Amino acid sequence: MARWITFLLFIAVTHARHEQYEGHSLYRVAGPSDQFQYLEAYIDFLSITPAAKSTSRQLEVLMRLSSEEKGKWLKYFEDHDMPYSLVSNNLAQVLRAEDSYLVRSKEGEAEDTNSTMTWDSYYNAEEINKYIDEMGAKYPDLITVINAGRSYEGRQIKYVRISTTRFENLRKRVIVIDAGVHAREWVTTPVALYLIKQLAEGADKLLTENLDWIIIPLANPDGYEYSINEDRLWRKTRSKSHAGSDACPGVDGNRNFDFDWGSRPDSNIACSIIYEGPSPFSEPETRIIRDAVLSNLGRTSLYISLHSYGNMFLYAWGTNGTLPSNGLSLHLAGIIMATAIEEVKLEKADSYIVGNAANVLYYTSGTSRDWTRGMGIPFTYTMELPGYEYGFLVPPTYIKQIVTESFVGIAAGARYVLSLY
Length: 421
Prior knowledge:
Largest sheet: 8 strands, mixed
Distance between the termini: 51 Å
Helix content: 25-40%
Strand content: 15-25%
Number of helices: 13
Structural class: alpha/beta
Oligomer: single chain
């Protein structure tokens, strides 16, 4: 009862906080990739549909425009022959609808006395860390919980090492998964937590007997909590260590890695949603991912960063559209994971697209996917999870489906890695 009352208070607060988006409109805009590469620094992109999936056969972007911005940017689209259509004239209403889904999910939530986690609800950072500790205590011979460090605002960032040999068998290959880098992409963290659960419970013993795992379920807890409590659309960290941070705090964690960092001038704007930060690895959050990767770099074969949304497996190089030396194998492994998901996805869900990130979308710099590939990990991906018709505001009623099918896909990728090594 106390938890339910707390949640009702949370909903009342979140309804009020959405007032900042009153009158903000959502537009779907079509155009060439170079235009969106430029616009990304100035406009909040909520989703990107690859040309292969769009009705216009061009990239299509769902973007947010305030009432003050509309005049400027709608004229820009017209001047550059970029067709656009209005999706919603009040984003606040869209966000309040999400709150309603959250209420209904809590009303129907079954009480589980054996765990603090179910797969039909979203949880805050404290509850997520509690679940990670629970799993470590329940499976001490398999799971080691690492208190990796503190976020900018002082929250503990935890990750798990899953190994039947406590990482002492140096012949075993390692797989690294991270989630929650972008604060508003709530559904990524349940996928990582479900992966921990399935591996711990022996859903596929081959994956634990022959592989070691590092899983970071919530890499950006400050931004995540801010997204829950203050601004549902917040994407970045919450750091204030850069020039202009009083007005524009935070850094895009997936532009802060040391691979072609600083090569895009439009990523050096502090108020931009894709701000790369004052230096590579300026954020304690990205340094934790870096250090976890480097701790077993020599035997790590697969890295996946979970994001939302779009049903895509994207691989390097995102900076220029060329392919790594193992580009064919990268594509094949992505196809194997996508095909496994295809067998169990919802009928209404899009099939996963597999491809080079720059060619499927547009050029990006400083991503973890490119950095890990540059560091020598052969198979590295950004995995964009399903959003259905809801985008990254995916209702909790879909969490179980997304975590289940994602496990199937990641497991297929892991088995492919085993077949090669």
